[in-house]
Write a structure and sequence with these properties.
- The protein has 413 residues and is an alpha/beta fold.
- The chain has 2 domains: 260 residues, Aspartate Aminotransferase, domain 2 (3-Layer(aba) Sandwich); 127 residues, Aspartate Aminotransferase, domain 1.
- The protein has 13 helices and 13 strands.
- It has a 7-stranded mixed beta sheet, with helices on both faces. A two-stranded parallel sheet has the order 1-12.
- It is globular.
- The chain binds pyridoxal-5'-phosphate.
Length: 413
Amino acid sequence: MNAFKEINSPLRTIMTPGPVEVDPRVLRAMSTPILGQFDPAFTQMMNETMEMLRQVFQTKNHWAFPIDGTSRAGIEAVLCSVLKPGDRVLIPIYGRFGYLLTEIAERNGAEIHIMECEWGEVFNQQEIINEMKKVKPKVLAVVHGETSTGCMQPLDEIGPACRELDVLCIVDAVATIGGTNVKVDEWELDAVIGGTQKCLSVPSGMAPITYNDRVEQVIAVRKKVEKGVATEQDRSEVQHPISSNYFDISQLQDYWGPRRLNHHTEATSMLYALREGVRIVLQEGLKERFERHRLHEKALVKGIKAMGLGIFNDVPWKLPMVTCINIPAGIDGESVRTMLLQQFGIEIASSFGPLHGKIWRIGTMGYSCRKENILFVLAALEAVLIRHGASIQMGEGLQAALNVYESANLAAV
Ligand SMILES: *Cc1c(COP(=O)(O)O)cnc(C)c1O
């Protein structure tokens, strides 16, 4: 009668910009026994996770905790807790995820002002600052690393300008956290959202966020505690309560803080995963981890170029953990991806919008960002391209990548 077999998922080499391969130590942590969400053994793990998240975000902010849900849950929680209908938001868009910020802010009734540039470009920071002076928004919402185009928007001047102009700077650092510098305090970013399934190498399902007092003050005014758990200290009349219950950061704060207010049931196994993921990040060291991402990116890029292929994002603002390859003329990009998966068990990504069918995207994130993966994807891509009749420099890709590793080894001696 029972026709369903036990799960037996195939082993893959995942080289997409997320989700990526999960560190085996994280998978192990996820299989440890469940605890109640108010068990002191568990709340201690919550506190430890907050402490480690602060270090990963390079911040002294008190608030740093995960939202349960995928990365966009973190974005949605921050935006819906901060924005009330009619609030003005400026969003510079340079790829798909800029539109996601727009979409979420719009659904919260904000007045949206956008700036757009071509996919593959980023903004001059001064352009954004000038636009802020004109628009006078309450919030600037911007993506740090655009996985759709493989570009990274510099923020070091934008943050301080926001502070000066009294604008809240909210940043989607989903793709960059744990893979390259996201200097929350130094760049004066007010709220930052990270992701788990990218450079942290934790499964999708949580979104770590951090925010400062400026954001906390805005949220505090809108705080409304659920009637069933409210006490005398909670106001019952609130003018513009946060529209979402699930994503209400003011209530979540009281679950992550000493009050331990009952809100949702915490996703215990995911918290184990995140705790282990950030522990591994700090054990490796932020600087070492960012250098590792740069090294494997370099080997991949040199290999791809030596093969004779073009890099779409070969620009100074390239996102270190995403390499976009121009699909050669006459080659069916989807057929190449299918063959990589079927014959080699390797997954690479296509792209969205104006770039769909034009580029492949290879992610080098977290645990997937390893030498053997880089060499494997270069070898397999070469074989598959030959199979598809593309004219490439045979044998050159792997040699170029090996050269990068060899000189890195020499430099390390
Ligand atoms: C992956 C990604 C997201 C969305 O994450 P989900 O976990 O799919 O909700 C948002 N922003 C950026 C920049 C991303 O790379």
